[in-house]
Amino acid sequence: MAEMDLTPKSAAAAFEGDGGGYYVWSFPALGEANVGAGKLVLKPSGFALPHYADSAKLGYVLQGEDGVVGMVFPNTSEEVVLKLKKGDVIPVPLGAVSWWFNNGDSADDLVIVFLGETTKAYTPGVFTYFFIAGTQSLLGGFSTDFISKSFSITKDEADEVTKNQTGVLLVKVEKGKTMPKPNAHLTHKLVHQLNVSATVTEKEFPFLNQAGLSANLIKLEPSAISSPIYTTDSTVQLIYVVGGGGRIQITGLNGQRVLDAEVAAGQLIVVPRFFMVAKLAGEKGMECFSVITSSRATLEDFTGKTSVLRALSPEVLQISLNINPELQTLLQSKSD
Q: Over 60: is that where the pLDDT of 6 sits?
């Protein structure tokens, strides 16, 4: 683990078309940590065809004010339609069927980054999607007679069902076509607005339990630092740099510094379980969105009123760090 390459990475295009594009991160550290990441960009009227995936994840809306998502959760037979806007977090449980749509009339794209875990995925570190419409649909893989008998329709109708949609993954909805309207009550219940620095677990947002993940957002002013933090519950952090930039350091086994790198918007960083990470903003500040692989994530700060440093007795701190009482007092006072 100490030799893992944790260098910040940018996404690569997996698909681009008239409706938008999907971009993925794929590097060994993701697979070793059993986490994955992708980014969906929908142009106005762009539509991501209905699909399900082999991984649970959280979507964080980076851009757009008129997003719409429809979901059918496992063991249900009812579609929920939700509104999405910049700053929203939406859990996507394992196996949920979902579609995504940019209902905006302006030129603004709807951009959503997805971070999650891949412990049950076909390929560790990668989200695999299974489409139920389009040229790569699962239904299209069945023979015409199977489809016709399954739905009690003619073979010509079966061909229409499986072959009329010639789009792949993402399409553009024609003008005049209507889409379902979002449900305001369910949006309030199933979507969480995260626009200030905070950690959100299932305690604050119960629906996170369905995905088994927590979310963290941190916004740093220019030259500000986020003191070292670590998780106490064997979870992994996956950090996406939303805006600005700066420097991130990670330390791990035997006190080894395993990362000391400049980071920029759009890059992804993996923090292995139990490792400690600190962030230092650059001259334009830095904003990071993170997913932690537990809905009850416990992040421990090394400084601050509730930190480990503050909790240790003065005597223990002096002896452990081999420092004089004045410096010990200064360190702990900085944690107030």
A: yes
Distance CA 52, CA 92 (A): 9
Structure tokens at 100: 């995504």
- The total number of residues shown for the chain amounts to 336
pLDDT in tens, 245-273: 999 999 999 989 999 999 999 999 999 99
Q: Taking every pair of C-alpha atoms in the chain, what is the biggest distance, in angstroms?
A: 86
Q: What's the pLDDT score for residue 107? A: 80
Report how far residue 68's alpha carbon sits from residue 274's, in angstroms, rounded to the nearest whole number. Answer: 37
Do residues 290 and 213 lie in contact, with contact meaning Cβ atoms separated by under 8 Å?
no
Separation of alpha carbons 172 and 260, rounded Å:
42
Q: What is the pTM of this model?
A: 0.94
The answer to whether the CB of 55 falls within 8 A of the CB of 123 is no
- Tokens for 108, please give them: 């603004």
Q: In Å, how far are 57, 76, 254, 258, 300 from 276, measured between CA atoms?
A: 23, 40, 12, 10, 9
SS3 for 80? strand
Q: Which pairs count as long-range contacts for 178-182, CB under 8 Å and 24+ apart, including other chains?
A: 179/68, 179/101, 179/103, 180/68, 180/70, 180/79, 180/81, 181/81, 182/68, 182/81, 182/82, 182/83
